[in-house]
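Please decode residue identities from the backbone states below.
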């Protein structure tokens, strides 16, 4: 008896807010998949219903991804096509997905990632900072290693991109003033693609002052000017004269 053809693992981006950002291809792949893996099935259910996607869902998140990946690999080896989605945006970008992709590749299972929504790209383009070179850090460590990471990034010459939650934003801005300097330029975007989308630009001090008196809601993307750009502006302002 012939062995079944191996299935394919699809990583499917979903809108980060505005449902009009869903692609035709993403809808087709999700409708054709034998199984949809969702970070939180309760969060994804309304979006799938909106696009009349009725396929069976299974929860795949950071707390069960190592265990569930074993079963998912079995289904893929049996020939089933499986689509992975996160709560919003592109799977594996500060969301579950990396471990499953790595496991699938170990078994020579085809993996295909569709292009689509992700929060850091529009935030970076909107920032006005250089986009030719940048480093994406995602969420910084909550405790252990956070200070070390700040010290390392303080001299990073590329544009730095970070994700932050609303309840930690002011604390993070306070830390940035300490490690990056109060005058470092920032661009902070929140609620991207949604009704109350907002981008605030200025120094660390200016941005912190703004959010101390304005609503802190939604997920935040923080773009930080690279150290090289900061130094370049200082030289342009004060001249590049050597000390006597």
């Amino acid at each position: 008896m012939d062995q079944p053809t191996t299935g394919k693992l699809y990583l499917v981006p979903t809108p980060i807010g505005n449902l009009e950002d869903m692609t035709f291809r993403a809808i087709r792949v999700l409708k054709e998949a034998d199984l949809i893996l969702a970070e939180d099935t309760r969060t994804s259910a309304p979006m799938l219903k909106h696009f009349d996607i009725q396929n069976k869902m299974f929860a795949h998140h950071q707390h069960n991804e190592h265990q569930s990946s074993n079963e998912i690999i079995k289904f893929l080896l049996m020939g089933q096509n499986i689509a992975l989605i996160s709560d919003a945006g592109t799977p594996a970008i500060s969301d579950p997905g990396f471990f499953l992709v790595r496991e699938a590749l170990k078994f020579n299972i085809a993996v295909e990632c569709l292009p689509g929504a992700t929060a850091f790209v529009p935030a970076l383009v909107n920032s006005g900072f250089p986009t030719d070179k940048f480093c994406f850090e995602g969420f910084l460590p909550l405790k252990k290693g956070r200070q070390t990471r700040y010290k390392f990034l303080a001299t990073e010459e590329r544009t730095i991109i970070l994700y932050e939650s609303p309840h930690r934003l002011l604390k993070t801005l306070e830390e940035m003033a300490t490690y990056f300097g109060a005058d470092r330029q920032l661009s902070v975007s929140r609620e991207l693609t949604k009704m109350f989308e907002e981008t605030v630009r200025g120094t660390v001090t200016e941005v912190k002052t703004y959010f101390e008196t304005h609503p802190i809601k939604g997920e935040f993307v923080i773009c930080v000017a690279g150290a090289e750009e900061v130094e370049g502006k200082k030289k342009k302002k004060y001249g590049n004269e050597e000390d006597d």
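Observation: Strands lie at 8-11, 35-38, 57-59, 82-85, 110-113, 134-138, 159-164, 185-190, 198-203, 220-224.
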